[in-house]
Amino acid sequence: MPSLITLRRRINSIKNTRQITKAMELVSSSKLRRAQAAAITSRAYRQAAYELLARLNQVKEVERQPLFKRRPVKIRLYVIITSNSGLAGAYNSNVLKLLTEGIRQDRTEKVKSAVITIGSKGAQFVRRIENVELLSHYPAFGDEPSEHDIIPVLNTVIDAYRSESVDEIRLLYTEFKSSMSQTATSLNLLPAGLAEMPKTPAQTPGFMNFEPDVETVIHNVGARLIQAQIWQALLESLASEHAMRAVAMKNATDNADDLIGDYTLEYNSTRQGQITQEIAEITGGSEAMAT
Fold this sequence. Notes:
alpha/beta; Pyruvate Kinase, Chain: A, domain 1; elongated; single chain; 6 helices; 5 strands
């Protein structure tokens, strides 16, 4: 049985840890409100951008545009969004699991895999995978990113596809659904408009007029629409990270409370046992002296 000093040290240590986890929970909850508002507000723009990409993909002229050109997949590039730090529950592991499944499928199909990581956790994981090239690594963009922050990522992705060094690009991120539900998601980023909308009468394009011409419009808006998808994925991932970290820290705080209660009970029982033993020893000594 542990001594009173050992139990007291354990209780104090857990209390200190509880203060840290409680503070992290409050900070993440505060950041979550802003991140959630940003992610939800821009969803309509992302959806419009994705639908426009799908509609442009139905125009014959896009087949000549580098970002819309499809070719047999020999090298597949994954862009994954993770965090710089842990203590966020399954936030990083869910995305990395999705990446692992994709790489396993690539090896089955004899397709080479390359990765661009956003966040240190993703880079640390990819460096340990054999025969997978880490094309670029970008640190996480903080709690208040701007659209300018993703320009280097966008340029790297577009240059890799236009130069035909990769044949398909997938974006892996965590989609925010609610504070209690987040889902690791794979989005086909390039070729642009890969996932076409169903050709219903309301969606099938009729006569479409482009000014000044089709090539100019597609060239100018293609990269911008892809940027919108990457930007939305970053916002969704940021909100998911804060939500999952808040939940993880709350669970850690609750577990710390349970441990403190258990150790306090054990401490009191041990202390009571020592007091009882001391009383018994004093009583026994008194009786021995009396006789």
